[in-house]
Design goal:
5-stranded antiparallel sheet, 5% helix, 334 residues, 4-stranded antiparallel sheet, mainly beta, 25 strands
């Protein structure tokens, strides 16, 4: 006799993550997907000023999905504009959307109707950083590893990062771009580069900083970034498992270490900065850059590849893990 467990076990469980005064109830069913999109791989998310959540997916036919504040599906945007490796997403104060196409080495800005406004970078032209796409051949050449082993570079991002020799121009597999309140743009260019790029409002590149490595001011996959109310740039230096904080002029202000679970994305309100950790946690800091709470544990459901929040203090994480917990998790502040 076969006995089966409840496949809705995670969604039906009353799960609360709590630490040092920050408590959140897990809601795995907030997003009400059309059935044909329910298993979409969701990469990143950001709210607009009206409370709609925009998420990026790896569905080439439905690259950007919009939900209202209650989790109801509204529309799909961006058909025909992106590869199947759309990455970070950011809704600007002007209600346009910055979409990072990692595979095509560009950031595209579209309007709220999904019409292309402009590109940052040159489509399908990666900058020269020394990055080698064929990681298997690189490992054989550098370390004598036989090339007949079963190896897929897509599942070995750390080895790929080791091939980067120098910082390059925009872009080589960028991760995310955001816009500041002053109209400047900042991009984390991390999968094939080790740089932060700053652009003026008209799209002109004004500054690039960073180098591959693990010293202060160096990066090993600059991934998510956010600018807080004090105009400080917070960067998730993912494979170095730390946050680096800069002025918008590129001056290093602080290095926050020992986040443990590979920080992947950052979002802030007026009081706190929230760091989503792709290996299972959320770290919360105050505006003095002190860690005030850490939620989750290694390989917990909180595998936050992306993180954002609403005006009520709730958090939303994008997990890449539909088969385990769902692709958008709401954390209700309690």
């Amino acid at each position: 006799m076969d006995i089966y467990g409840n496949k809705y076990r995670t969604a039906e469980a009353d799960v609360v993550f709590s630490n040092r005064g920050f408590s959140y109830k897990l809601d795995c069913g907030w997003a009400k997907w059309p059935e044909y999109l329910r298993k979409s791989t969701v990469v990143s998310g950001c709210f607009d000023c009206r409370g709609n959540l925009y998420v990026s997916t790896r569905d080439i036919n439905n690259p950007i999905i919009v939900f209202d504040a209650n989790g109801n599906y509204q529309q799909s945007l961006g058909q025909g504009l992106f590869s199947d490796d759309l990455h970070g997403i950011f809704v600007t104060p002007r209600n346009t959307v910055l979409c990072t196409d990692k595979k095509r080495h560009i950031v595209r800005e579209i309007d709220a109707d999904g019409q292309l406004l402009r590109d940052f970078g040159v489509i399908n032209h990666p900058s020269d950083t020394g990055y080698e796409q064929d990681v298997c051949s690189w490992l054989k050449r550098e370390y004598g590893i036989p090339n007949d082993i079963h190896f897929n570079a897509a599942f070995s991002p750390v080895d790929g990062l080791r091939t980067i020799k120098r910082t390059g121009a925009p872009f080589n597999q960028p991760a995310k771009m955001i816009e500041s309140s002053t109209g400047d743009f900042f991009a984390a260019d991390g999968y094939g580069n080790a740089a932060i790029h700053k652009f003026s409002a008209d799209g002109t590149l004004t500054k690039t900083w960073g180098n591959p490595g693990n010293n202060d001011g160096e990066f090993r996959l600059p991934h998510g970034l956010w600018i807080d109310r004090m105009e400080r740039l917070w960067l998730a230096d993912r494979e170095n498992s730390r946050i680096q904080v800069f002025s918008t002029a590129g001056e290093l202000l602080a290095v926050i270490k020992d986040l443990i679970y590979k920080p992947a994305d950052i979002w802030a309100n007026t009081e706190n900065v929230f760091v989503g950790e792709v290996d299972g946690g959320i770290t919360i800091l105050d505006m003095d850059m002190n860690i005030v709470s850490q939620l989750g544990y290694e390989n917990s459901p909180l595998m936050a590849h992306g993180i954002c929040g609403d005006e009520q203090g709730n958090l939303y994480i994008q997990t890449l893990n539909f088969h385990k917990t769902g692709n958008i998790l709401k954390l209700i502040r309690v």
